[in-house]
Specification:
This protein has one domain (2-144): START domain (Alpha-D-Glucose-1,6-Bisphosphate, Chain A, domain 4). The protein is built from two helices and seven strands; from the N terminus they run E-H-E-E-E-E-E-E-H. Strands 1-7-6-5-4-3-2 form a seven-stranded antiparallel beta sheet, covered by helices on one side. A hairpin with a 2-residue loop joins strand 6 and strand 7 (101-112). It is an alpha+beta fold. The longest helix has 28 residues, at 117-144. This is Polyketide cyclase / dehydrase and lipid transport.
Length: 146
């Protein structure tokens, strides 16, 4: 099992950042994300607990479920299915107010489930980290109005 952690300060109010990061439609504009589909709406504006969304990129396909939704500070999710298959994958976004806006900490653990799990997982670490950076960079640009 390996962990990926990405931190970024977004110069916007915490509620705006939380709303952007939890609205599945925003991910459509993130580079490398080909498709995002809300498979099942959750309990809060469709994006809360119980929401299931499909995220398709050129190298991964994930179906994830929101398991914790605490506006405006925390979201936790778990992957229900994926290609490549993951043995375990959980993630969380934690937001806190910061002098320069909102500090976002995105943390995920996963392991690729195949004959060479350690090697495959290590190969996917930079891809997952890069994906998190792209999402947070897109959120920053859009919340700044760029």
């Amino acid at each position: 099992m390996r962990g990926v952690e990405v931190e970024r300060t977004i110069p916007a109010p915490i509620t705006d950042v939380f709303d952007w990061l939890t609205d599945v439609t925003n991910f459509q504009r993130v580079p490398w994300i080909r498709r995002v589909t809300l498979v099942r709406p959750g309990d809060t504006n469709g994006n809360g607990v119980g929401a299931v969304r499909l995220i398709v990129t050129p190298l991964m396909r994930l179906t994830e479920e929101i398991v914790e939704y605490t506006p405006p500070t925390r979201v936790r999710y778990r992957v229900l299915s994926s290609v490549p298959r993951l043995r375990t994958q959980d993630g969380k976004l934690e937001l806190s107010e910061h002098a320069e806006g909102t500090l976002v900490n995105w943390y995920s653990t996963f392991e690729v489930d195949n004959r060479c799990p350690k090697l495959s997982t290590c190969a996917y670490l930079p891809l997952v980290r890069g994906g998190f950076h792209l999402v947070l960079r897109t959120a920053t640009k859009e919340l700044r109005g760029e």
